[in-house]
Design a protein that fits this description.
- This protein is mainly alpha-helical and 320 residues long.
- Among the domains are: 94 residues, Cyclin A, domain 1, CATH 1.10.472; 87 residues, Cyclin-like (Cyclin A, domain 1, Orthogonal Bundle).
- The chain is 57% helix and 3% strand.
Length: 320
C-alpha cells in the first residue's frame, strides 16, 4: 500500500513539474509562450503550438464600431443614484410594440398593462422608496429644465439620499429638499444657478428653498464654497452670442473687482451680468441692458449700478 502511494505521489509530482514547464516556457526550446488571437499558446522563438482550443471568455459576436458594440451588448446599464432602485430593476417600455416594432394584439396589450402595474408595485414596496422615487423625479425634471449635466443630477441624488437616511425630511416638503439638493449640487460642480432661476422651475417658493438649503447644508456638513461670479460668465455670454474676446474681457473685469474688493457683499449674478454687459461695450459688440437682464434674470438697475462699480475698479478709482 505504501509503495502504491509513493508511486502515485511521484506520478503527480511529475505532472506538476510538466505543468510548471508548460506555463514557464516552451518545452522544446524554453522560449517565451504567448496566447495568439486564435486561442492557441505558441512559442515566440520556435513556433511550437503548446496548447490549442483555449476557452474564449469574450463575446461570441463581433463589432466594428462603438455604436455596433453598444447595440449588440446584452449587459444592462451601470447603476446610478438617479433612480430610486439604482437602475437594478426591470423597466417595461410604455410602447405597446414588440422587438420588431410591430403593434401588439389587444390581449397582449392588456397583459403588458397588468405587468407594468405589478412591476411598479414591486419597485416601490415601502414609503421610503415611494418618497425617493418622487424626489428623484423632481430632481431630474428641474435639472433638465435648468440644463444641468448628469454629474450634477447624480450629486443632487446623493445629497437627497443622505438627507433621507439622516431623517431630515420630517417637517419639510419633498419638493423643498429636492430643490435645495439641486441648488447645492450645482454650486459644488461649479455650474451654479441663482435662486431666482431655481425658483422658476421649482414647485416651492424662493424663501422656502433658501431656508431648506441652509438647513440641509448645515446638517449634512456639505462643503459649498461661495458662488464665484466668473462661473456665470460663460453661460451669460453664450446666451447673448458674445465672442470669446468679450467673455475673457468680462473675466478680467471681475478679477480686477476682486482685487479691489468690490465683489464683497454683492450678488455674484449681478456682478457677472454687469461684467458681461461692460465687456460687450468695451469690445464693440451689440447688446443691451434689457437683453442681459432677461438672460441673467435680474433688474436693469442692478446691472447699471454694478456696471459703474466695475468700470471704476478697472480704472483704479476709489469707490464712493
Amino acid at each position: 500500500m505504501s509503495e502504491y502511494l509513493r508511486t502515485h505521489q511521484s506520478t503527480d509530482e511529475q505532472e506538476d513539474e510538466q505543468t510548471e514547464e508548460r506555463t514557464e516556457g516552451c518545452p522544446e526550446c524554453g522560449g517565451t509562450l504567448t496566447a495568439s488571437a486564435d486561442h492557441e499558446t505558441v512559442c515566440d522563438d520556435c513556433g511550437l503550438v503548446v496548447e490549442e482550443d483555449n476557452i474564449d471568455r469574450g463575446p461570441e459576436w463581433r463589432a466594428f464600431d462603438a455604436a455596433e458594440k453598444d447595440e449588440k451588448s446584452r449587459v444592462g446599464a451601470p447603476t446610478t443614484n438617479m433612480m430610486h432602485d439604482k437602475g437594478l430593476s426591470t423597466n417595461i417600455d410604455w410602447r405597446d410594440q414588440d422587438a420588431y416594432g410591430n403593434s401588439l394584439s389587444s390581449n397582449q396589450r392588456q397583459k403588458m398593462q397588468r405587468l407594468r402595474k405589478w412591476n411598479e408595485r414591486f419597485r416601490t414596496r415601502d414609503s421610503k422608496e415611494r418618497n425617493l422615487k418622487q424626489a428623484l423625479g423632481e430632481i431630474d425634471r428641474m435639472a433638465s429644465a435648468l440644463g444641468l449635466p448628469d454629474n450634477v443630477r447624480e450629486t443632487a441624488s446623493v445629497i437627497y439620499r443622505r438627507a433621507l437616511d439622516e431623517n431630515l425630511l420630517p417637517g419639510r416638503s419633498i419638493e423643498g429638499v429636492s430643490t435645495s439638493a439641486v441648488y447645492a449640487a450645482a454650486r459644488q460642480a461649479g455650474v451654479p444657478r441663482s435662486l431666482d432661476e431655481i425658483a422658476e422651475v421649482s414647485r416651492v417658493e424662493k424663501d422656502e428653498t433658501a431656508r431648506t438649503y441652509r438647513y440641509v447644508v448645515r446638517e449634512l456638513g456639505l462643503e459649498v464654497a461661495p458662488a464665484d461670479p466668473e462661473s456665470y460668465v460663460p453661460r451669460f455670454a453664450s446666451d447673448l452670442d458674445l465672442s470669446d474676446e468679450a467673455e475673457n474681457r468680462a473675466r478680467q473685469l471681475l478679477q480686477n473687482a476682486k482685487e479691489q474688493g468690490v465683489h464683497s457683499g454683492k450678488s455674484p449674478v449681478g456682478l457677472a451680468a454687469a461684467a458681461v454687459y461692460a465687456a460687450a461695450l468695451l469690445t464693440n459688440e451689440k447688446t443691451t441692458q434689457a437683453a442681459v437682464s432677461e438672460v441673467a434674470d435680474i433688474s436693469e438697475v442692478t446691472i447699471r449700478n454694478r456696471y459703474h462699480e466695475l468700470l471704476e475698479a478697472e480704472q483704479g478709482l476709489p469707490m464712493a
